């Protein structure tokens, strides 16, 4: 079943986070992920507000998790650590 990778992000270092974004996109695409929302308009109804929200669709939970643990994504993530506060969850789509 397909899955959604959902990230809620507050960027604290724009330059470093820009390098993360530059590397993360190709890593996500290489694992079958496609962005369906990136930083668009949102309404926060509950919980901690993060000004950047990203949703990518993957073929499966396993594909999304493999992407996260891949050397390519981890190299990108090195630039996000210390440059952002974030939460990331993978959710299976039950249709």
From TrEMBL:
Which InterPro entries does the UniProt entry name for this protein? Answer: Dimeric_a/b-barrel (IPR011008), DUF1330 (IPR010753)
Q: Which Pfam families match?
A: DUF1330 (PF07045)
Q: Which domain of life is it from?
A: Bacteria
Show where the DUF1330 domain sits. Answer: 2-92
Q: Which PANTHER family match?
A: BLR0684 PROTEIN (PTHR41521:SF4), PTHR41521
Q: Please identify the protein, giving its name as recorded.
A: DUF1330 domain-containing protein
Look up and give the organism this protein is from: Roseivivax isoporae LMG 25204
Organism lineage string: Bacteria, Pseudomonadati, Pseudomonadota, Alphaproteobacteria, Rhodobacterales
């Amino acid at each position: 079943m397909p899955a959604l990778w959902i990230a809620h992000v507050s960027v604290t270092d724009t330059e470093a986070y820009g390098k993360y974004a530059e590397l993360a996109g190709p890593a996500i695409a290489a694992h079958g992920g496609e962005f369906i929302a990136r930083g668009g308009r949102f309404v926060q109804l509950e919980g901690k507000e993060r000004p950047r929200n990203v949703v990518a669709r993957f073929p499966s939970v396993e594909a999304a998790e493999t992407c996260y643990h891949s050397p390519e994504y981890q190299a990108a993530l090195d630039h996000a650590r210390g440059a952002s506060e974030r939460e990331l969850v993978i959710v299976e789509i039950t249709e």
